[in-house]
Design goal:
This protein has 448 residues and is of the alpha+beta class. The chain folds into 2 domains: 275 residues, Zn peptidases (Aminopeptidase, 3-Layer(aba) Sandwich), CATH 3.40.630; 154 residues, Alpha-Beta Plaits. Strand 1 and strand 2 form a beta hairpin.
């Protein structure tokens, strides 16, 4: 087992701080993100180590970087380590510290992206550079990808690369965000590996009414009032619980006591359990992993205070389970709306099905070997992430893709979950060191 030499903690901490301070905030607009800032930092960091480096910029400022160590055996596997450099917006009013300050406080690096996922983007870069500097000559190829635009569906990042530069990102295995946070279980802490993710069905609901003077509201057809009822019905809608294979293997792997395990695997009992479950992080994950979820998030309505609105647009974030289609989602929406269904137009803005990779693979076995040597955790368990990652573009090509990292016990699973797109995002230096050493050891294990 080869370990990264001393000094890695300071190195990965410094790189992470630089990436946080670059504030590559992606609000979905083409001109946002400006990941070129972090690509410039990464290129300067990686230059001189013997890596083959290429950059791509499909839109001005929306840059991605690839660095590779070419293997000597064309039949050996290729491993792609993929981290994104963009982050979601942050409101400083809710933070204890500057969200883009990258401050190091009591062994923790604070800032937007510290968890999602600049910590892994940095640790992957440090491990790749150190392998190259050591003269690593693997049989298989190692690729490091720092990709743009993950936080807005990947059109200028992973999607663009897989569509336009497929040979440059061709791989046998892909590793990206966001597993590896220790989860307490009956048999000792488990490390979740993200083997799949829910699908995304974003839609716009248009609710129509009749305009009129707001001074005479009696018996008016107010689209805003109607839309309020639409939101209420969607928020209260309860689709059926579905126990799919990834969820079953997760629950069984966690070695829960029977009084917890049995209802978590029972579609008739799971919902009542999670509603009052003391761990809010696990409760939310258990619910989202076993249900199609509907979240009203945006409303546009009205033109003037004294005008009855005749049109309201609602945006709904819907996440689908493995095997579900857009037609099934539309049927569920109509079921939720009931007698209002004919008054609402449904337009899908994003319709991407759920993706998953097999669990029993050489990559899984290698992760188990490496993590066993680096930590005292008791084993890996498969997990379904309820958000979207760039792994989906590779899974759709048949490439085994997992989300993983290696984290200390300092951050609890609940804290980890709450910091994704939340306030006071931060990561501890021990986790940065562990992830870096894990990528380093994994490259030797799989590619040598």
């Amino acid at each position: 087992m080869r370990l990264v030499r001393t000094g890695v903690t300071e190195e990965v901490t410094d790189l992470l701080q630089h990436l946080i301070r670059n504030a590559c905030v992606n609000d979905g607009a083409v001109e946002s993100g400006q990941e070129i800032r972090s690509v410039d930092v990464l290129r300067a960091y990686l230059d001189g180590s013997g890596l083959d480096i290429e950059t791509y910029e499909p839109e001005a400022g929306r840059a991605s970087l690839i660095a590779r160590i070419e293997g000597t055996d064309a039949t050996a596997p290729t491993v792609l380590l993929m981290g994104h450099t963009d982050v979601v917006p942050a409101n400083p009013d809710g933070w204890q510290r500057d969200p883009f300050g990258g401050e190091l406080v009591d062994g923790e690096v604070w800032g937007r992206g510290a968890i999602d996922m600049l910590n892994l983007t940095s640790s992957m870069a440090v491990a790749t550079k150190r392998l190259a500097a050591e003269g690593f000559k693997p049989k298989g190829t190692l690729i490091y990808l720092a990709v743009a635009d993950e936080e807005a569906l990947g059109d200028h990042g992973a999607k663009w690369l897989t569509d336009n530069q497929p040979d440059d990102v061709a791989a046998t295995y892909v590793l990206t965000e966001s597993g590896g946070i220790p989860m307490p279980s009956g048999g000792g802490p488990k490390l979740p590996v993200i083997v799949g993710e829910k699908g995304t069905f974003w839609c716009r609901l248009t609710v129509k009414g009749t305009p009129g003077h707001a001074s005479s509201p009696l018996r008016t057809d107010n689209a805003l009032v109607k839309a309020a009822e639409v939101v209420r019905r969607i928020a209260e809608y309860r689709p059926e619980t579905q126990i799919h294979e990834i969820w079953r293997r997760f629950v069984e792997g966690m070695e829960f006591p029977a009084e917890l395990r049995d209802p978590l695997l029972d579609p008739d009992r799971l919902y009542d359990l999670v509603v009052d479950f003391p761990s809010i992080g696990l409760a939310r994950q258990a619910h989202a992993c076993t249900h199609t979820t509907f979240a009203p998030t945006v409303m546009h309505a009205g033109t003037k205070t004294n005008v009855i609105p005749d049109r309201v647009e609602l945006e709904i974030d819907i996440r689908t389970l493995p095997g579900q289609t857009g037609d099934e989602v539309r049927a569920m929406l109509r079921d939720a709306l009931g007698d209002l269904a004919d008054s609402v137009e449904i337009s899908a803005t994003t319709d991407e099905t759920s993706t998953a990779s097999p669990i029993d693979t050489p990559l899984w076995d290698a992760l188990e070997r490496v993590t066993t040597k680096l930590t005292q955790h008791s084993g890996l368990i498969p997990f379904l992430t309820v958000g979207a990652t760039d792994a989906r573009f590779f899974r759709r090509q048949g490439i085994t893709s997992y989300g993983f990292g290696l984290f200390s016990d300092r951050i609890s699973f609940d804290d980890f979950s709450s910091m994704f797109h939340g306030d006071d995002e931060r990561v501890d230096q021990e986790s940065l060191r562990l992830s870096t050493e894990m990528w380093h050891a994994l490259a030797h294990d799989l590619l040598s």
